[in-house]
Amino acid sequence: MTDSNLLDKMLPEEESLKGSKRKQKEEEAWKPQGPRDPFAMLDSLPEAKQQEIQRALHLFSLGPSLPKTLQQAKSHTYRFWDTQPVPRLGDSFVTHGPILEGEASVREEPYSLPSGFSWDTLDLSSPPVLRELCTLLNENYMEEDDNTIRCEFSLEYLQWALRPPNWLPQWNCGVRVHTNNKLVGFIAALPAEVRVYETDKRMAQVKLLCVHKKLRLKRMTPVLIRELTRRVNRQGLHQAVYTAGIVLPTPLSSCRYWHRPLNPRKLTEVSYPGLRQNMNLQRALKFYRLPEVTKTPGLRPLTKEDVVGLHALLQANLRKFHLSSRLSMQEVEHWLLPRENVIDTYVVEGDAGTLTDVVSFYGVSSRVLNHPVHTGLRAAHLLYVAGTAADPVDLMEDALVLAKSKGFDVFSALDVMDNKSFLDNLKFSVMDKSLHYYLYNWMCPNMSPDEVGLMFPN
User: Alpha-carbon distance 451 to 414, whole Å?
Assistant: First the structure.
């Protein structure tokens, strides 16, 4: 090849190279200056890669640092909770009352957040804000340890769970990122009348503590709890009740989850935790088969006209437990009146027209991740079952039949109240997960699960 031919070949390549570099410079001129937003970087990755990263973060941030049993808790150091007015692990009380008397003056200024973050009181009456909260919870609130099933909240569920008649807007604490206003932390509470043994106490009922996965190592959770405590104290309340799936100082009562499959085929296909390992699909379908119709005479959905009678029925039943709610008429209507895809309540009307029994359950949806067929699961969670006339096993079997007819895949219940009277008979299986009840700034003797009558969706 001559020099002339070589030069002729190189000139177009050089022009092409110059054009490529010019185009690259033009594209870079429009790029934002400074470090890229890590949240945007994660969102730009393929979903499979996002799940891989989130699984690693989940195991790293939620692993051995959070004990799930009392045995693990004994060797754990609680840097935050050791500074709070809560019973220490191993403490035993025979007396009742506050651990620390309420202070005369309460801090007026919010607690300081790490640099780059700010407080926000969420206006849950605003649909855009509620959608933001949905996104935060659905991506970060709770999921199985193998990152295959994740809770998925709806706007209707959050309106029901966080906006009862006595809700206070200032008790919805949010944390936002300065640069993009992204919501990355949340904690809420509701005022509640709670009966602890023989004491009626107005306190805060803490719900839905959530911190973005990438911020859990920044110790954002203690700051959220401190700030909520400050806001509650500003209202003159100094006690709180809350639940958690991990062991903190110190559980008032520890209860177990029980699950009853309604759609064994689907649960098997998504490897739902808690299924009986020694049972193949055909045997499971036969074992968990339910009647097509209910059997309790007079069973029907709750109506608004039933609220007065239901209030009396519930209050009479809840008085026999050591920990329970003292619900107002308005609260009974809010928590139990049926709402589509949120709460279902059925009552039994006796011959005299009075209500004799009630059973209610609320729905929790979950997203199934990386499955070729199924994208979601629906679980019915038992709220209340109480009565004086119907057989409790028959009434609960009817609840299973009704839940299955509404498309639920599994029915979940805690072994609180009188629930153990039907769990084994109706083929519930005990899970390896517990729910622990806690009281903040209140001491009293511990209680067994069947002495707990306080239920609140969380």
Answer: 12
Which residues are registered as beta bridge partners of 324?
A: 195
Lowest mean pLDDT across 20-29, 92-101, 355-364, 388-397: 20-29
Cα angle vertex 431, ends 427, 435, to 5°? 120
Distance CA 14, CA 34 (A): 32
According to DSSP, residue 361 is labeled E
Listed residue (148, 201, 171, 173) closest to 325, CA to CA:
201
Q: C-alpha angle with apex 391: 388 to 396, nearest 5 degrees?
A: 105
pTM (whole model) above 0.90: no
pLDDT at 147: 60
DSSP string, 89-142: TT---SS-B-SSPPPSS---SPPP--TTEEEEE--TTSHHHHHHHHHHHHHHS-
What residues are paired with 380 via a beta bridge? 363, 411
3-state secondary structure of 246: coil
- 450: CB partners within 8 A, 6+ apart: 415, 416, 417, 418, 419, 420
Sign of CA dihedral 451, 69, 215, 50: negative
Q: How many CA atoms lie within 13 A of 323 on its CB side?
A: 30
Amino acid at residue number 14: E
Q: What mean pLDDT comes out for the span 142-147?
A: 59
Report residue 122: phi and psi, to 5°: -75, 130
Both tokens assigned to 446: 């511990």
How wide is the angle at C-alpha 123 spanned by C-alphas 439 and 115, nearest 5°?
A: 75
pLDDT digits (tens, 9 = 90+) for 249-277: 999 999 999 999 999 999 999 988 877 77
CB 258 within 8 A of CB 434: no
In angstroms, the CA 4 to CA 284 distance is 82
Residue type, position 444, single letter: C
DSSP code of residue 81: G
Structure tokens at 151: 């809770």
Task: Report the percent of the chain where pLDDT is more than 70.
Answer: 84
Q: Which residues pair with 386 in a beta bridge?
A: 358
The residue that leads in pLDDT, 80 or 456, is 80
pLDDT in tens, 167-187: 999 999 999 999 999 999 999
3-state secondary structure of 296: coil
Greater confidence, 115 or 174? 174
